[in-house]
């Protein structure tokens, strides 16, 4: 049985897993689970991941979900993965676990919460929530500050590494979701953090050309969302004049 | 240098780390960081954990925070730890990572959010937030349902294990925080989940007598909180009658 990767490229942890497989030359079948069509709730997918989320993998009969757990599994199960992605050294590995755990309640919560409450919630039938967006932005800003002053303090990559680990890929894919914001908002949020901006560029370079290729859908979606927002804003202005 | 564990026993991940060390006969020094006195913000502690949270460890010069990362580190660094806590087998280990990752945005978010917004926020100078408490309770109920129907589906312990892993200890310590609620609320939330209730008992038994001993502070705090609430409620009634 082939190694199957169940993903929607619009999901940031899905992109991290696809890029990781491509960078490491892993032979896999990409199975699209279209979250805009609610395919994550289908009975077929429920048998893969009962939490109805992407990504998930099936390696023969072995099934797994949660992107960090998947990245660790692939690092250990496929002999071709270079050791810098998930080092065998106990202390280095512990630091990578630490930043991945921190990611959940900090960077992910801030970034994903901001995007959802500013842009995506109407697509799920939920009204935009400016208060929740504001709280998420505060968590995001605090997380960016910790990245700048602590996690990237001594090195190009996270936790003192000179080469990227699975944590760099996971966290940078998270921040790429900010591409969906307006240029003005994205710059206002990101540009004060010079090390973070450089680290994102370094991680992109280290995973080229796959990083750009896998993110193409995001840039396309950005264009669509911004055009839709411009049309809506035009309609509102027209209404106000009438 | 001794192996130091920086904790406040009122914090559920702190208790998981202390119990784990005690159960596995690890020689450690417990350093109390009193979060009610804001000691997590002291310059001394900032040098241990710049995120100002407990628990953290210092093993000689090596420092680490985030409780899941700590439990994994201890499992690997101390040869006396029985293998069922963090099995070497790739698939079993991957499943443990998966449930630990799931914990962050589900069980922890629901349980900790409910307790904070129902009881603890005034102690941090933040008003109680019934709407946030309600949302947290919904996340908690959904998480309990996933524990009952998926994570504990096939076995006494999580992810198909016949003996406890670090994930059982971490998640059961999280749920113990519900002791701070009234008996009525706690029963209403927990009692529909028979497997979850039995699994909590099994995890307590597997880690006796340390589990009870380390949780003693929680039962004491519960008594204090409920007495304070009864006094406040009496005062409110008296005021209403005047």
From TrEMBL, chains A, B:
Q: What Enzyme Commission number(s) does the record list for this chain?
A: 2.5.1.18
Write out the entry's keywords from A to Z. Answer: Detoxification, Transferase
Query: Upper lineage ranks?
Result: Eukaryota, Viridiplantae, Streptophyta, Embryophyta, Tracheophyta
Q: Tell me its family.
A: Belongs to the GST superfamily. Theta family.
User: Gene3D superfamilies, per this entry?
Assistant: 1.20.1050.10, Glutaredoxin
Task: Tell me which Gene Ontology terms the entry assigns under biological process.
Answer: toxin catabolic process
Q: Where is the GST C-terminal domain?
A: 89-233
Entry keyword annotation includes Repressor: no
EC class of the enzyme, as a word: transferase
Organism from which the protein derives: Centaurea solstitialis (yellow star-thistle)
Protein name listed in UniProt = glutathione transferase
According to the UniProt entry, its GO molecular function terms are:
glutathione transferase activity
* Protein's UniProt keywords contain Protein transport: no
